Amino acid sequence: MDLPVMPPVRPMLAKSAAAVPPGMLYEPKWDGFRAIVFRDGDEVELGSRSGKPLTRYFPELVAALRAQVPPRCVLDGEIVIAGGGRLDFDALLERIHPADSRVRHLAEVTPASFVAFDLLALDDASLLEVPQHERRESLVVALRDAAAPVHVTPATDDLAVARRWFEQFEGAGLDGVVAKPRELPYQPGARAMVKVKHERTADCVVAGLRPHKSGPVVGSLLLGLYDGDGRLQHVGVCASFPMARRKALMEELAPLRMESAEGHPWQEWASEEAQAADRLPGGPSRWTGKKDLSWVPLRPERVVEVAYDHMQGNRFRHTAQFRRWRPDREPDQCTYAQLEEPVGYDLDEVLGT
């Protein structure tokens, strides 16, 4: 492979904002695997955000990209899987599998799509220094003949349209809106764009903690919600505390610590059968590898209000943010029923297909 922009490339990132800013170019924020596509003739490589190759996990995309994108180009975009008219991140996670036979089976039953939103190189020219709005125009021209599963993301410079996308597209499983300065060059690894994501709050049971890697202070709080059958399901973690707060939390939660998980709602967390039946902490993951996922059980008596952006199935998609303790709430009031459901929106409408 011999391109004007060579792998690996760290994708340009975005910093968070509370509202959609004026005067920029706007795109939907996709919820999938960020990927840089490198094509040089028959050679196609998919690079992840960390620089590790994704190529072997998406053979159907390699074939589609080889057939539909320019012979020599570098594209920035997102690998997604659609199911039931919305994005399905769980199906995407299943694709990261060590067995080639399993990967190829899933490529047939849950095929992925690639949504392009930037063009970093074309033919013999690097476009990294070209302004954002010009790269967008070149991207549209370069992929004008592309068809599913290769797409070009919608884009607009109309603030009102961007705000409408922010409200509507969540129903199709999208993450929010990305805003890009018109004159912005491509800056690998820099948080040069702006992302606006949904934020909601939920009251959760604090049922455990994980110590911080630096020592005997709180690393994260394990959160639970009761399902319709009265079982406490592990829905995610709350983290990102200042060090002083981590120490204070360890002392504050000390009276709730249990000697063992016996009698705890998640006492069967080490059992594969129990992990398959319920949402429990410490479950195996191809992402965590041999990482220590053990945890300290707490009596599930404290309620915390956390902020989250959206759900992935029956759990928080990303790490939740601590807002405040809720001594006025009883743990059994912390149920899935309190969670807001976004109004459904067909993913095909987003992609214009």
TrEMBL record:
Keywords: Ligase. The keyword Ligase applies. Its EC number is 6.5.1.1. It holds the Pfam family DNA_ligase_A_M. GO terms for biological process: DNA recombination; DNA repair. One of its GO terms (molecular function) is ATP binding. It comes from the Bacteria. It catalyses: ATP + (deoxyribonucleotide)n-3'-hydroxyl + 5'-phospho-(deoxyribonucleotide)m = (deoxyribonucleotide)n+m + AMP + diphosphate. The keyword Ligase applies. Gene3D superfamilies: DNA ligase/mRNA capping enzyme, Nucleic acid-binding proteins. PROSITE patterns: DNA_LIGASE_A1, DNA_LIGASE_A3. Residues 114-231 form the ATP-dependent DNA ligase family profile domain. Belongs to the ATP-dependent DNA ligase family. NCBIfam families: PRK08224.1 (NF006078). This is DNA ligase (ATP). It comes from Actinacidiphila yanglinensis.
